[in-house]
Amino acid sequence: MEKVGKKYKDFDNLVSLVKKLRSPAGCPWDRKQKSGDIGKYILEEAYEVIDALEAKNHPGVKEELGDLLFQILFLAEIYEGEKLFSLNDIITAVTEKMVRRHPHVFGNKKVNSVRQVKDNWQKIKKAEREKKEGDTKQNLFTHVPRSMPALKRAQKITAIAADYGFDWSCAKDVQKKLQEEMREFSAALKNGKKNKIEEELGDILFTVVNLSRFAGVDAETALGKTTKKFLRRFSFVEKQLAAKGKSLKEATLKEMDNIWDKGKQKEL
Predict the structure, then answer these.
(1) What is the 3-state secondary structure (H, E, C) of 136-157?
(2) 3-state SS assignment for residue 142
(3) What is the pLDDT of residues 6-36, one digit of tens each?
(4) CB 40: neighbour CB atoms within 10 A?
(5) How far apart (Å, rounded) are the C-alpha atoms in residues 104 and 111?
(6) What band does 197 get if pLDDT is binned at 50, 70 and 90?
(7) Among candidates 230, 222, 223, 226, which has minimal Cα distance to 263?
């Protein structure tokens, strides 16, 4: 019990630190921050947590989780200062929500699979939203965050549409659609109108997201991994050129391609 008590004490100390920073005797910069300012910091810190997780950097995860927690507490303190809600209100609300959404743990609901757990979660979530919205019924996609990365948001939206039957029958159909979009993009390039080129390129990306969904792959994750692979191989090219006394600007495209292929063979 002492260990648990110390954890709560450390948490209380952090909350007190945030309050001190926002107080008249605190930091001018921290006092100046508004809720909208903190949103972007929360997003940045969340991405840094993910980077540390993917790198299996345990000290890094600890540090980045701390940074993320600080921003969350800071935002809660701003709203408490505006007398809208408190940190305790947040904790109470999320506790009640988690109990409500786990009736198989905290109630009498019986489940036989993870799939059933997910289905129950979605049903409960839907019922909560309908109760909250009342007569102001919103469309199916209202609750998909606009600030989500574009690929992830597109995949989320198309998955919701697919749940209602608005979808291709198989991956092969999506591939045909992709070929169609490529032809339209080629025509737009010949035409040279920037708006049309942008539109057709967007259609290609949107179709690729659907193809990712059919393949059971998260498009955002797939692109992220490919970008990391590109960075590894490009770094290899740069190092190999430096070993020859050349910079990237001094090298020919053929030289870079040859080194790139070597890196590919090494599975970099």
Answers:
(1) CCCCCCCCCCCCCCHHHHHHHH
(2) coil
(3) 668 899 999 999 999 999 999 999 999 999 8
(4) 11
(5) 7
(6) very high
(7) 230
